[in-house]
Amino acid sequence: ENQVAFLTEIPKCEHHLHIEGTLEPKLLFQLAEKNSITFPQGFPTTHEELAESYNHFSNLQDFLDVYYIGCNVLISEEDFYLLTLEYLTKVSKQGLKHTEIFFDPQSHTARGLTIDLVFNGIQRACDEILAKKGITTKIIMCLLRHCTIEDCSETIDLAEHLIKEGKIHGLGLDSSEKPFPPELFEQIYLKAKALNPKLRLTAHAGEEGDSSYITTALDKLNVERIDHGVRSIEDPKVIARLAKNKIMLSVCPLSNVVLRVVKNVSELPIRKFLDANVPFSINSDDPAYFGGYILDNYLEVQRRFNLSKKDWAIIATNAILGSWCDEERKTELL
Ligand code: ADE
Ligand code: ZN
């Protein structure tokens, strides 16, 4: 209907999208077959069965256990290219104008792939979609917080040339949140930033971790943005800080439901963020696992909050302003 058309046409920017999380069950099994990858005992054997299992995650770790198994089917540069192109093609029909793509180098280097192979596959799809559809992209590498500091440090070394050349545009932090608070990664963030002062910084915080994780991500890692951050609502001081310093939260509504951060999207502090002038964008996180891409997330927010056109204009504008594209592109989108 009318609202679907309106929400489809809003120019969208995505800031929280794990490329490995766009691996649809069908492609997962196709690549497993092609690359002769076998799964652990008890892993679903059909794509239908696998997709059904996604309805039963009870928390973030539950999901991550499956997600890391999925990553193992990605082997060649072409695999990463196809994965990324499939995602970009899909969202090109959903009003997406700019997207910042996370990848997890450690999930792949641990299996003997090179960071260049992974990066080149993703970048080739990005170049193609820019030429065909005019969609702009930035690539952000994320460190896995369950890995050792030594491993994270080595990963920065492996990415050194890509960071120095600005091909990797930003650094993020993901995986199991609660046992691994942001401050553990202070030296790693300093080391990465020293390679290129233009490197942008973000981190997952306040998804399962409480609002203190948001504060330490800001204070110790000097991040400019917070991924998720929904638990900021538990501390008015944190909310005031986000609003005052215009720190954008990359909120992922459907993810938060599937991973049981909230029971349904109406429990998210969307209205409260708007009222408190906390900038946020709406994102899909791991769309192949969480039941929808960016437009589905917009639609679910609208279904639960019935926002006005004025509210949506604020959301769209904040998503553009919070993007890490160049200023010219921002002006074009505004
Ligand atoms: N890796 C992929 N998706 C993630 C999420 N939502 N939180 C933490 N790590 C992730
Ligand atoms: Zn995420």
Mean pLDDT: 98
Q: Structural class of the helices, strands and pairings?
A: alpha/beta
- Tell me the number of helical segments per DSSP (H or I, 4 or more residues long): 18
The CATH homologous superfamily is named Metal-dependent hydrolases
Portion in beta strands: 5-15%
The tally of domains stands at: 1
**Are there runs of 5+ residues with pLDDT below 50, and where?**
none
SSE arrangement, N to C:
HEHHHHEHHEHHEHEEHEHEHHEHHHH
Radius of gyration: 19 Å
Distance between the termini: 25 Å
Q: Hetero groups bound?
A: adenine, zinc ion
* Form type: globular
Annotated CATH topology = TIM Barrel
By CATH reckoning, the class would read Alpha Beta
Largest sheet: 5 strands, parallel
Q: How much helicity do the residues have?
A: 40-55%
Q: What CATH architecture label applies?
A: Alpha-Beta Barrel
Strand order of the largest sheet: 1-2-3-4-5
The total beta strand count reads 9
